[in-house]
From TrEMBL:
Entry-linked Gene3D superfamilies: HUPs (3.40.50.620)
Annotated protein name in UniProt: Nucleotide-binding universal stress UspA family protein
Region forming the signal peptide: none
Organism, as annotated: Halopiger aswanensis
Family: Belongs to the universal stress protein A family.
Span of domain UspA: 1-141, 156-291
Length: 292
């Protein structure tokens, strides 16, 4: 399914873990690795002369060459075809344009884990790519501890698929089950009764029962899809704050991957990222695959 994997990079330390996940999937699928660095020209003063712009951009271009070479070197060391490119422009726009031009099947991006007030939103480039990408996006927490080393990641043997029974969740499940099948992974389908939406303590038992029944039906549907592929599957219906419950569940089953729909909604020229998906991507210490 994945024949081309794009790895956008800003040259950050700790990006090796994102490169490692892209390379792991590249090996599994026999995919070509594309490395892309975008020199952000959006913040440049408009009054700069051409030679001044070139002088200003030179360090970024050099950094981009070094960052993309690091990615292609690793891919080629694993006998994968690899190409690299340094562009100028607005990062998320150039990433999306490159993905469209090259018919990219998967975008693997590093994300910075945030704490405190900074955790209120994703980095603007990551969020914009997640919400606008037609291709699935694998978000990988950048690790400062891995800076300067060749990070090693294992296969995806335990995969969590949150579901709410929606079409977006079904699309995410279908894509993820292809990955799970490649790794002969165990699939864990989970549904969370949202305690922030429903006052479950005071709600009539009949209503809570209907919600649980809907959750069981949704998780059973994913599990059935997995078993049709001869994969082991488990189901779970939980209640609480969705992000907390999903991350706790992933930890409980020692998952190596979480896969979710973005539930994008058209708003003007852009889309909104589902709040639970955004929070999971922000906080997860394991890769999160999002499917539009």
């Amino acid at each position: 399914m994945f024949t081309t994997v794009l790895v956008p990079t800003d040259g950050s330390s700790g990006a090796e873990v994102a490169i490692a996940h892209a390379t792991e999937l590249g090996q599994t699928y026999g995919a070509a690795i594309h490395a892309l660095y975008v020199v952000d020209t959006g913040a440049e003063p408009a009054a700069l002369e051409t030679d001044q712009r070139e002088t200003l951009r030179e360090p970024s271009e050099r950094r981009g060459r070094e960052a993309t070479i690091r990615i292609t070197d690793r891919a080629e060391a694993h006998d994968l075809p690899a190409v690299r490119e340094v562009r100028e422009g607005t990062p998320h726009r150039e990433i999306l344009a490159y993905a469209a031009e090259q018919d990219i099947d998967l975008i693997a991006m590093g994300t910075h884990g945030r704490t405190g007030p900074d955790r209120a939103r994703l980095g603007s480039t990551t969020e914009r790519v997640l919400t606008r990408s037609d291709a699935p996006v694998l978000s990988v927490r950048l690790g400062e501890d891995s800076a300067g080393t060749d990070a090693v990641v294992g296969p995806y043997e335990e995969v969590v698929i949150p579901t709410d029974g929606s079409d977006a969740a079904e699309r995410a499940a279908e894509t993820t089950l292809d990955v799970a099948e490649k790794y002969d992974a165990t699939v864990h389908a989970v549904y969370v009764l949202d305690a922030t939406t429903y006052d479950l303590e005071d709600a009539p038992r009949s209503i809570v029962g209907l919600l649980k029944e809907g959750g069981r039906a949704a998780t059973d549907a994913v599990a059935d899809m997995a078993r049709e592929r001869d994969l082991s599957a488990t189901t779970s219906v939980r209640r609480g704050i969705p992000t907390d419950e999903l991350l706790a569940y992933a930890d409980d089953v020692d998952a190596e991957l979480i896969a979710m729909g973005t539930r994008g909604q058209t708003v003007g020229s852009g889309r909104l990222l589902g709040s639970t998906t955004a929070r999971v991507v922000r906080r997860s210490t394991i890769p999160v695959l999002t499917v539009s």
